[in-house]
Amino acid sequence: MSVPADTVSPVTFYRPNYHIKTPDMRSPEYVQMSTAAAMTLGLVPGTMHRTGCTHCLNLLVTYAEGCRANCAYCGLARHREEARDYADRNFIRVDWPTVRFDEVIERMVGGSDASQFQRMCISMITHPDSDADTMVLLKKWMAALPHVPVSILSNPTSMEKADLIALRDAGADIFTVALDAVTPEIFDRTRGKAVDSPHKWDKYWQAIEWAAEVFGPEKFGAHLICGMGETEEDILRVAQRITDMGGHNHMFAFFPERGSLMEDWAPVPRDQWRRVQLARFVIDYAGGHISKMRFDEEGRVVDFGMAKEDLAALIESGKPFQTSGCPGKDDEEISACNRPYGDSSPSDIRSFPFALNRRDVEIVKRQMAGEDIGTL
């Protein structure tokens, strides 16, 4: 039976000894994984709406005391007092069940479903043990599954350049930085001093510059969230900067996380999001440049800087509107990390975790034109 992501029940887990989570379930012995990854690996029953699997095994380091940052939009933020069991907190809209890392590796080595994974990603959090435990997980993975490339979703606040070099030398393939907020003011308001959080704009950009040097072109990227108060021109100028450095942009549509400080903030308007998705794709993959684009007085894209027929062909392909993230083995323009319904529900898909069909493309075009319609 197909289970839409916005109706999936909270996951307890699949074996009797995992029904009760304890403070001892901490990294590096344990990790959390996204619901989509758990389904693909056969740990959780059910399927996602219109997609059979995710091609990236998304893992998250975990500790009973949780993340020490306090980002206003994040489900893992320190302020969430009602979620006393850290392991039960949702993150990018879905539950992240906890599992022993050795079992993950065993299933990857021996299971047929595991062959669908083209990449693994270790997501760090702000915690004193996160850096060291990430290295333990990486080395263990490379010893068992060197043919499956690994991305690191980093925590720049606790890292120095030597840490990036060590991760690269241990086998990490891609290094990403969740910049998220695209102006210094929004960064401070959502994840810096204004919310009693330790992150700093300059340190995050320093980590991106280190990544460009240490990992090299096409091997680093930044997460950018659209809809936190920036203009379309703001976020696309940052996207262009990342591309000029040799990296890729992984876009997320802002969607209010239950229990976060921004839970009452409206989702990014559909037309704004579709324009940003399209312009990001033009910048990253179609040889475009922001200097050729035009914006109105409110910073909205009014000209993508491409010939109309070329732009129309991009839209018809549907590719710009699929999830953007680290690539898989088959097509660098299509993300292995498709994060099913991480930034929207199936009834209002913002980042498509599958190839768009004709109806999907027509809906996207209507959304770009300003129609207030969802995808179901």
Topology:
Elements: E1 30-33, H1 35-40, E2 56-60, E3 98-100, H2 101-110, E4 119-123, H3 130-144, E5 150-153, H4 161-169, E6 174-180, H5 184-191, H6 201-214, E7 220-226, H7 232-245, E8 248-253, H8 270-285, E9 294-295, E10 301-303, H9 308-317, H10 358-368
Parallel strand pairs: 2-4, 4-5, 5-6, 6-7, 7-8
Antiparallel strand pairs: 1-2, 1-3, 9-10
What is the total tally of β strands?
Answer: 10
Helix content: 25-40%
Structural class given helices, strands, pairing?
alpha/beta
**In this structure, how is the largest beta sheet organized?**
8 strands, mixed
Whole-angstrom Rg: 20 Å
CATH architecture of the domain at 5-266: Alpha-Beta Barrel
Run of helices and strands: EHEEHEHEHEHHEHEHEEHH
> Globular, elongated, flat, extended or rod-shaped: what is the shape?
globular
Strand fraction:
5-15%
In whole angstroms, the N-to-C terminal distance is 18 Å
Number of helices: 10
Low-pLDDT regions: 1-19
Question: Would you mind describing this structure in some detail?
Answer:
With 376 residues, this protein is an alpha/beta fold. The protein has a domain at 5-266: TIM Barrel (Alpha-Beta Barrel), CATH 3.20.20. Helix content is 30%, strand content 12%. The protein contains ten helices and ten strands. It has helices at residues 35-40, 101-110, 130-144, 161-169, 184-191, 201-214, 232-245, 270-285, 308-317, 358-368, and strands at residues 30-33, 56-60, 98-100, 119-123, 150-153, 174-180, 220-226, 248-253, 294-295, 301-303. Strands 3-1-2-4-5-6-7-8 form an eight-stranded mixed β-sheet. Helix 4 (161-169) packs parallel to helix 6 and helix 7 (232-245) runs parallel beside helix 8. The longest helix is centred in the last third of the chain and has 16 residues, at 270-285. The two termini are 18 Å apart.
